[in-house]
Write a structure and sequence with these properties.
The chain has helices spanning about 35-45, 55-65, and strands spanning about 5, 20-25, 30-35, 50. It is of the alpha+beta class. The strands form two sheets. Strands 1-4 form a two-stranded parallel sheet. A two-stranded antiparallel ribbon has the order 2-3. A hairpin with a 6-residue loop joins β2 (about 20-25) and β3. The chain is globular, with a radius of gyration of 12 Å.
Length: about 60
C-alpha cells in the first residue's frame, strides 16, 4: 500500500510555496502540509491515502512485519 507523506508543520513551519495547504493528519490529527503534487497524486489515483510523515512511516513499517 502506498501512503504519501505530508510534511509536519513542526518540521517545516512555513510552507514552501503558496500551493501548500495546512491539513490535519487523518491518523493522529497533527498539523501537516498538503502540496499541489500530493493533491494531483490523490486525484489521479497514484496515491490512495496520505498521512503525516510519522504516521506514514509507522504504517509502512507495520506493513512489512
Amino acid at each position: 500500500m502506498r501512503i504519501a507523506c505530508m510534511p509536519l508543520v513542526t518540521n517545516i513551519p512555513k510552507p514552501r510555496d503558496r500551493g501548500w495547504v495546512m491539513k490535519k493528519c487523518p491518523v493522529c490529527g497533527c498539523d501537516c502540509w498538503e502540496s499541489n503534487t500530493l493533491r494531483n497524486s490523490l486525484r489521479s489515483g497514484v496515491v490512495k491515502e496520505a498521512a503525516c510523515t510519522e504516521c506514514a512511516l509507522k504504517a509502512m513499517g507495520q506493513s512489512h512485519d
